[in-house]
Each structure stands twice: as C-alpha cells, then as structure tokens.
Amino acid sequence: RIYCSLIINSFSGHYSIDILDYCFRFNIIMIFLPPYSTYLLQLMDVGVFQ
Length: 50
Known about the structure:
This protein is an alpha+beta fold. The protein contains two helices and two strands. The chain has one domain (about 5-50). The protein has a two-stranded parallel sheet with strand order 1-2. The protein is flat and about 35 Å long. The mean pLDDT is about 85.
C-alpha cells in the first residue's frame, strides 16, 4: 500500500466527515498543524519553494 500525507492548518472546514472518509478510502494521512503555528513554518516554505 502507498500512503500520502496532507499537511493542513487546523481550520475546522478542513475536516468534515466527508473529507475524513475520502482520506481513509484513498490512504491519505492528514497532519493537522496546531493553531497559530504557521509563523514557525515560514522558513520551511521558503526552503521548499526556492
């Protein structure tokens, strides 16, 4: 089996029952970032998108 990961912020619209079911069926592991932590990851964004 091949799994994918999806890294998203903790906005409540991202995790409805339909989305969780879809991710389960297609082997997608959802990784939720803690609230107010995106400023810590900005350096990672810069490194990845250069």
